[in-house]
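So, can you check?
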Amino acid sequence: MLRASVAAVALLAPSAVLAQDEDLAARVARLEALILEQQRRIEAQEALLAERAATAPPEVDPRWRVQADGSGQGVFVDRTLDELRAGRQVASTLTPNGQSQPPPMVDAQAPPSPQEVTREQLAAIPEGIAVLSQPGKLTVDLSAEYTRSSANRLVFRGIEIVPGVQIGVIEANEADRDTGVVTLAAKYGIAPGLEGEIRVPYVWRNDTITTVQQRDEAVTRTIDLSGDGVGDVEAAVRYQINGGERGLPIFIAGLRVKSDTGEGPFDIDRDEFGVATRLATGSGFWGVEPSISFLYPSDPAVIFGSLSYFAHLPRDIDKTEGEIRIGKVDPGDAIGLSIGFGFSLNPRFSFSLGYKHNYIRPTSSQLNDITEKSDSLQVGALQFGMSYLLSDRFSLNGNFEFGVTEDAPDMRFVLRVPIVF
């Protein structure tokens, strides 16, 4: 019996080994087929990546780390090597070509980097604060402006014998001034951190001056003047000094030049009494304004401010009006400053609050070889701005100003529509 069993095993053993060899060969064949299929997929993916890389847009400067509103504007941020190694960036940003970049590693112990400014925070910042355009971006800005100013003055010319008993003339003046300006502006990013701008305004003005004199009876006189035409064309250039590294604000220097293309006050016609027949649409003088502005993000707001000096260039009028010979006229220069903050409520709507003040020095005029000076002016206004982002190319901005000093206009409203190309 034992011998029979051994003989059976001896007969079956070669068959089992043969079956195992066949199963192993089938497994190896399947693995080889899978490897070949995976290799074909990898080759196809590499070909697709190469095709996409050939048609991809050119790389942009990675230091453009800030995107503003739909006007295609931003701030050029120059980050140092140490900051790049530390990974001190707190939010994902947009590059100038609109591609999103994921946030790098965040240093939990490092303070938030001040150069990270969101597009919503910058949208409602007033027009006078510099926000640079990205290189190669053209922004056309169409704006409409309305300014309202009124003044009342009561003058007594005579003597007062006892309180309440006056002998002379009482004169009351009321002046209402309305000004409308439509401006076409274009800004272009020349290079990283450098921007150029040109502005062409069309001005409409209307003044109504009412004078009431009380003698034996009231005498009322009303003068209604108006004027319209091209105003003073302006050109400006701005340069970003730094990128806001090491916790510093972002500083931007600017230089603006104002021409005398508008009709000045000495260019209009006057009657035999020296009264103008229409209103001027320009100042009649060239001017240069250097300025420095700053942006300092403080999440969730961004603080802004500016300091400027506007210098008028004197001009020899050399003209006679009535019996008065007008010689050299030097309009008063102006020192301006502003401060405020912008705040984003959601990805589309933002607002800003601020205050601006201008000190205008006296104007010097030579009249019949006698130099006379006017009074200096203090012009202060509260600012309130709103912005709504319609799309990546269009936005709607509104800015209000309310005068708080005697020399300031009562109110000013500016509606702007920036369009990015």
